[in-house]
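Example for tutorial group B:
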């Protein structure tokens, strides 16, 4: 469920007409619903009720300060994968003890930053990282709490570019080597082993891969405790998918996911951490764009819109589907026609949909890309020297620009011309 609905023939973001926002800020732009963000966070929090737990929002999905502050004030922790994300989380008021640092390539600078500012745990991805973390913690007179990310070799049954739990993926250590690596961690100074970390991929639409991975984690927990390790925290990652196409079957609910966790891991008495990103932010955002031209082609018609692959790269990168709807509600029974919906960037890959059924549209009409809140704005760029587009947040009948569109002068003036020119 989201809070972007037609009312009196027009698309609204909560209680604000989307066309009103477009008139104020220009197109294209992203708009986020506060109510949807909070609802989805609370679904996860309530799904784990009765267990000691922390829901750490995966910031890589959408990291605007207004989004982070909204979730932090609701009690969310944060899952970060870079120093920039760590500093964003702290700037949004998230204390260090509620920040988990993930990622395969943590640098010495990033490790020092997190140790100095406070951290709940590092999710260690490799033995070399563990050695570096130990050395830096010793040098700083700190103790670094760690989990070790294990790779359970489970097929997440998702897109190959967002699968992370197979043996050929770059993430974590093979679960078969876990006991030896934990033994090494226990022997290193400056480290405190607190638990196990696992994450098998993103946009999962069934629960069985989670169950297979978590059963392996449960077995490993018992083994590591028998080896003398104090395993008291299980970081289970995120990955639960969202329905990008409303015609598709809905993925499992957070409630079902929470029940699975309790059934498979509840007997261990561990604190549970989960790191949802997409399901919290995905359906909480729209990308709103304007039709520039309707072009008649050879055997097909094109809707050329003012958003492009630099604004929303998921279709070009992942062949991802986004439902695209007109901002003015079509009349009941109106006939649709197929369009290729494309942007103005000089790449054939700048295509959002092929032969998508839409009501007849004209230049100047507004369209909304649904489920664009996750991996939209955060992956955008200035390709073709197109400025980053605004982000807007809605709460009830109010809206605010939470990142403005830079001017062309601001974009150009970030470059520096060398003296010899």
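The residue assignment follows.
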């Amino acid at each position: 469920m989201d809070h972007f609905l037609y009312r009196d023939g027009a698309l609204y973001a909560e209680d604000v007409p989307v066309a009103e926002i477009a008139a104020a800020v220009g197109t294209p732009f992203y708009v986020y619903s506060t109510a949807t963000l909070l609802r989805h966070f609370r679904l996860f929090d309530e799904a784990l009720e009765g267990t000691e737990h922390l829901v750490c929002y995966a910031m890589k999905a959408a990291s605007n300060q207004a989004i982070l502050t909204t979730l932090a004030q609701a009690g969310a922790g944060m899952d970060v994968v870079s120093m920039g994300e760590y500093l964003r989380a702290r700037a949004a008021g998230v204390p260090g003890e509620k920040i988990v640092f993930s990622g395969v390539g943590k640098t010495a600078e990033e490790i020092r930053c997190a140790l100095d500012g406070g951290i709940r745990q590092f999710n260690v991805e490799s033995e070399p990282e563990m050695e570096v973390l130990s050395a830096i913690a010793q040098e700083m007179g700190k103790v670094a709490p760690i989990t070790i990310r294990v790779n359970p070799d489970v097929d997440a049954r998702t897109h190959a570019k967002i699968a992370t739990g197979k043996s050929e993926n770059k993430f974590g250590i093979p679960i078969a080597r876990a006991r030896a690596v934990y033994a090494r961690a226990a022997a290193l100074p400056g480290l405190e082993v607190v638990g196990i970390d696992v994450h098998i991929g993103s946009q999962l639409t069934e629960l069985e891969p989670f169950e297979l991975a978590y059963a392996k984690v449960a077995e490993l927990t018992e083994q590591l405790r028998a080896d003398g390790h104090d395993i008291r925290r299980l970081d289970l990652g995120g990955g639960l998918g969202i329905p990008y196409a409303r015609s598709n079957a809905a993925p499992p609910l957070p409630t079902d996911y929470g029940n699975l966790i309790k059934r498979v891991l509840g007997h261990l008495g561990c604190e549970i951490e989960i790191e949802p990103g997409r399901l919290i932010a995905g359906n909480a955002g729209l990308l709103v764009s304007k039709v520039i031209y309707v072009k008649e082609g050879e055997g097909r018609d094109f809707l050329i819109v003012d958003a492009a692959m630099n604004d929303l790269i998921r279709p070009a990168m992942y062949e991802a589907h986004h439902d695209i709807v007109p901002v003015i509600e079509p009349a009941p029974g109106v006939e649709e026609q197929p369009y290729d919906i494309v942007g103005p960037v000089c790449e054939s890959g700048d295509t959002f949909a092929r032969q998508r059924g839409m009501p007849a549209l004209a230049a100047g009409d507004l369209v909304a890309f649904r489920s664009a809140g996750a991996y939209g704005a955060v992956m955008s760029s200035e390709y073709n020297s197109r400025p980053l587009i605004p982000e807007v947040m809605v709460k009830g009948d109010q809206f605010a620009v939470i990142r403005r569109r830079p001017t062309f002068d601001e974009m150009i003036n970030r470059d520096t011309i060398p003296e010899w020119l």
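The chain has two domains: 4-31+282-412, 103-274. Compare this with the pattern of hydrophobic and polar residues in the output above.
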